[in-house]
Amino acid sequence: MALTKINNNTLSAVSELPSGLSGQNYPAFEAYTNVDQTVSDGTDTKITFNTEVLDTDNNYDTSTSRFTPQTAGKYLVNTSILGTDGTTTLVWCEIYLYKNGSKYKEARYNFNANYISGFNGILSGNVDMNGTTDYLEVYVNMNSSNGGDITISRGRAVDTKDTYFSAYRIGD
User: Fold this and answer.
1) Which pTM value belongs to this model?
2) In sequence order, which ranges of the chain are alpha helices (DSSP H)?
3) Cα separation of the two ends of the chain
4) In this structure, how many other beta carbons lie within 10 angstroms of the beta carbon of residue 92?
5) CA 52, CA 54: separation in Å to the nearest integer?
6) Is 29 a domain residue?
7) What domain range includes position 140?
8) What is the pLDDT of residues 126-148, one digit of tens each?
């Protein structure tokens, strides 16, 4: 893709990108869950993203729900979790991005006294990856009003992909 800039009302090609940018947003992947998953109350649970939308360099593994890019750099990572609860009400939820088996980033949702029966939580951030052994996974921990299980939903309708995990390289 060619980049252009305006110089005295004339468009011209940019021959160099700013420092640290690659001009390539790959490796990249996006995966989603096509089945509902039960999460036990108050327990860190790894989310299964078992269906790929794209995987430019075969760095995402649907059997482990793990992204292990083989190109070093900075990656923009996104995940969206649709939590529903038919028998209890949600009190709070934490979404975690794990890097190399440990919590790395977190999004917290506290519903206070306004208990809800479902929500869509998002976690997004930049992550430095070494290009050899670093890997990413997504976990959640949810709390219900009566200690009951919570469902991580594949989507509100058959053709939606509301629970997903994606990343792409943004630079060195």
Assistant:
1) 0.84
2) none
3) 19
4) 14
5) 5
6) yes
7) 25-171
8) 999 999 999 999 999 988 888 88
